[in-house]
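Final report, Chapter 2: Outcomes

The project's central promise was a pipeline that accepts a single protein chain and returns its three-dimensional structure in a standardized token representation, suitable for archiving and comparison. That pipeline is now operational. To close this chapter, we reproduce one record exactly as it appears in the project archive, with the input sequence first and the structure output second.
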Amino acid sequence: MKQLPKHIAITGIYHDSVIKVLSPLNIYHYGLDFRPKSFQFIPEYQALDMLSRHREHKIHWYFQFEHILDPMILKLAKDVSELGTFQNTFIFSTDHLIEVLNKSSNGRNELTNFLQQENFLLELPQDLFSQDLSSGLLHHLRLARYQMKGLSGFIIPFDLLKDLLHQGKLRPSLQQLQSIFSEMEVREHQASNEAYAELFSSQFKIVLKCKWGDNLYISLFDYLAINEIHLSIDAKVETHYRQIDNKKIVNEIRVVRSNFSHSL
């Protein structure tokens, strides 16, 4: 039986009016983008103000950074902890992952301590399975799983899975991704689609990163037990730059939910 996603997270929010609009839809997962070049970038002081205004709400926050070596990560973690207790997860790309792993193997520092304690997700690149990236990055993802106790899951771009499915490479590619698990863990599961989904689900949080209007193939959920869908604010749900179209975003979320009648 397919395991369908349980939550939608709206990422890249830059003011909290959208939270009020989406609360009646039971959307309680939101992401803040701290990447300086992002159109959805939010300064830390505005983010902290937003968290402070919603400290009583049961919101799960995602904090997205360009890469794992961004010096603002530790500052934000400290400032958020001083502000109060929040449910939050950090998001990093895989850039500089090798460098961080090398630092981790050479002893503890403030960053490596952070990566042992704070929940974080790694966003997999669109070209993960290209010839030049595949073996090296997958090897280091395997190391990250054992060296970084805070690593709680992966974010997988929908475009990546869609391309693999069209090329007939989805199953073998996911087998490659499974190599981050030990051989013993893999042997404990039979070679079936449902077992693949079970293995991923039991070990990691799997997030599917989508765009507004993506046609989500239900067949994908035969292969992956996806816990959550992430959708980022962009021009498709804005009236103009950094002005969210409330009616449009509500309608778009309803379209996504129509694909999953028993979840989200």
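Archive annotation: The beta strands are 7-11, 29-33, 60-64, 87-93, 120-123, 151-157, 205-210, 228-232, 238-240, 243-244.
This record, like all others produced under the grant, will remain available to the consortium after the project formally closes.
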